[in-house]
Amino acid sequence: MNEKTLTQAIGELILEAAPERRTELVNLWQKYAPQFSHISDKNGFEMEAGPWGLILFTPRTMGQIWILGFAAWRALEAYCPYVLLCSEIDPSIMPDVPDQVETALEEELRKAEELQDISCIDAFEWPSVIPEPSSNLPKAVRERAIVDSIKIASAYVFLHEVQHVVFASSGARPLDRKAEELECDRFARDFLLERIPEYCTVTGYAEDAVLDKRLIGLALGGFILLQVTKDRDGSESHPAVAERLHGLTQNNGDAKAHSWVYSCCLLLGVLRREGKLPSRLAFSDPRDLFRKMIQVLR
Q1: Which of 82, 137, 181, 200 could lock 207 by a disulfide, CB 3.0 to 4.6 Å apart?
Q2: Number of neighbouring beta carbons within 10 Å of residue 182
Q3: Cα separation, 179 vs 184, whole angstroms
Q4: What's 93's DSSP letter?
Q5: Cβ atoms within 10 A of the Cβ of 297, count?
Q6: How far is CA 185 from the centre of its chain?
């Protein structure tokens, strides 16, 4: 796929996530001319804005996003009862031996890590329980929900890089590189959320339901950050992952919304897998639990 075709395809993907932003996206493309391009394969999670408006990534990067989208849903299936039915997270009441869902979650996370680290992508064996990326919509409701969340998360990732291109082209780049990363996150979040009311006026969809769905996609974007970032404490150029997660989830509305439950399940899976859950974590609602787990993550 050449740069023009790939750039057009990514533009359409962004519009699938936020159809109401077509005019703004066309203006962005015309004014700043971002160009998306595949680069030669190498291990890692490669996605960055380069010179001359180029946004460079490898196919294995998109493969990781896809697999992690399915793993995130597996975390929802594994930990949803704890978030919805309990008032505290107590590792002692959780099974010592992973059940079937947790075992599947671990396998999917392991495959995402393998795809990130493997030296030759041709040697990677795609997980049998996850469909390979395709333009065809899956028929099952579960898989369609997962693919929708992956598209929104991918739109967030691409929009973040588009804002880097805007900063470079406009000369308005923040002096602090960490601040630039947070501003790119804010731009992507706002692009996906700000004009939901207009979209719902035209389509008749319930505003809270559309907001909830897009926030789930943003939560998946944060989960992907957690899984692919080697140094979560940050660096000279990137803020700590916990700070970015906080920014992506600020002012997310109703504490009982599905997006809070989904977000909690993802963080709960990360902390449990890494043995970082406190001996007792009391909470009043899913939003309260998420914020407390963010503090543990810090």
Answers
A1: 200
A2: 18
A3: 9
A4: G
A5: 18
A6: 11
